[in-house]
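Session log. Operator J.P. requested a structure for one protein chain; no other inputs attached. Running the standard single-chain path with token output.
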Amino acid sequence: MRTGYTLNGRYRIIRALGEGGMANVYLAHDLILDRDVSVKLLRLDLRDDPSTVRRFQREALAATELLHPNIVQVYDVGEENGMQYLVMEYVQGTDLKAYIKTHFPIAYQEVIEIMEQILSAVKLAHEHNIIHRDLKPQNILIDPQRVAKITDFGIAVTLSEHSLTQTNTVLGSVHYLSPEQARGGMATKQSDIYSLGIILYEMLTGTVPFEGETAVSIALKHFQSEIPSVRAVDAQIPQALENVVFKATAKRPQDRYPDVAAMATDLQTALSPSRAGEERFNPAGDDDGETKVLPLSALSELTAADQPVKAAVTDAAAPEPANTTSEKAADKAKGRYRKRHPRRFRFIWAAVILFFLLVGILIGVALFRPQMTSVPNVVDRQQTSAQTTLTAAHLKVGEVHHTASAKVKLHRIIRTEPRSGTQLKRNTAVDLWISTGPQRYKLNDYKGDAYASTAAKLQALGFKVHRESVHSTSVPAGRIMQQSVSAGQKVIPKDTAITFTVSTGSQTVTLSDLTDKTKTQAQNYAAGHNLNLAFRYAYSNDVDKGKVIRQSPGEGAVVQEGDEITLTLSRGPESKGPETDQFNVRVRIPFDSSSSSTSDTASDDSSAVASSATENLIQIYLKDQDHQLSSIYKQMTITSDATVTLPFTVASGKAGAYKIVRNGTVIAEDKHVTKD
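Structure written below.
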């Protein structure tokens, strides 16, 4: 897709981010919400493949069900000109595979922090009975704040959809494939746990446990070979942390963690001093009855144990004659001592020389090898305290980095590089990472946005979100009118509560019978129900002067708040008097977006505040044969510039007058209105 193309009239393509086997991913800009997004577009050559389209749609369905800060959020799903596309959250940064390559070795504490985020996201997916089936570092994104986000649910499956996993089809990346998937069996939650164990292995060692020339050879190793020891690569890794890898990657699913939560709980204490003496994990029930290949060492031991027995049997079966035995004994007594005596002295001298040679080598190594020291644990200390401790350990402070952390207090050490416990030459520089406190989130202006999606997004980030509902004639139902925390503020989500004023739309009114009511009574009724009135006049012999002859719409009609009701008022019986002039005057009323309404007719304080920026209250006063300037001719609310027509009936040669008040301030007035 070319740069600059606007998808669905909303998402403008900026550049390509990557290409995959199923879809291509682009960076785009949402023109409506003014934000960058990722657009995943199904490849052109796969549009007609029903299985690929189902897989693509399954990714959208799986991801939209999962709302979690460590899962890439799906914003929109659609199709244009036969092109299937997903619109997702854009995550700046890199994937975990590249992160491991760039930052290895990674501090143990950081490994655990990243894994805890991944486990939290997978836990939510499993709670919704969704199995990812393709967990690997390439499908985990890391942003600059080291927040992990899982993506690509393209081959995810719910536990109820067993038919999607066939025995002759293997789905998932072979380096992270569980033994049961490698055999073509059905994927379960324990299959995801196995993949998580391989990811943890790679973060600790910088490489995957199994390599091979073909995908088949790697898959065979997953269910035939034991996972290599991470401590064989790095002896500083605690046994408890290695045990997490072993238990997650046990060959039999029943030997693994029962669920992701159990793995997360075990991982949290893996660096605890209380688990320093933990024994190596060995899964129970290793002998499951399957055919196994005995190692060569076992065969050697068996042969060695069998040899004495064979020798004994041979000796018993073929005894030597007595005279032959006595002759050999005599030979031994005569000459063997003389032959072996000089050889024994040669061995003694060789041993003495070798001993002194080894002592000399050890002394030389001790004198000339560099003096070493161990990096002390300064995590959670103040910078000055950490510097003092490092100096006491004969180490220097290197570069000092500042980064956000939700777990470590402000101005305290998050981690060191190299990590604590590492053996270094004296006077080596150790870099420090210092906490700047929890990451702050910059609030947007949410006015006009849908409350449901906005509240869900903020709650997922840790905000406490409250709702206040009010009626509005200008804002659609469900849209945000006001927010308690101003846009642009940077706040800590878990410490912030935000209240949204949300429109419930216009309220309906069933009209009462206003006939025979006075003008004042009609105006009071209209003000109480947020209605606008327009007046006409007619002579009547049956209705007293100043009372309503008829109304439009009539009694019982259902109207919306803010609608206009026309009332015809009586002038009383027609009588011959001086001639009158009847004419209309058009007046333009400008809208003021900065003023606030001071209407006493608002139903409550919150609605008055909510309408202040979106509505103006207009009151019109007339003076002619039928009106006096002391009473309101017409009251209305406007949301933009408006034009009204004012009817005048005045005696010939006389003048009328009008006055227009906007939000309590006179904005137009004419005391001499005549027929031109």
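Operator note: Residues 578-676 form a domain with the Immunoglobulin-like fold (CATH 2.60.40.2560).
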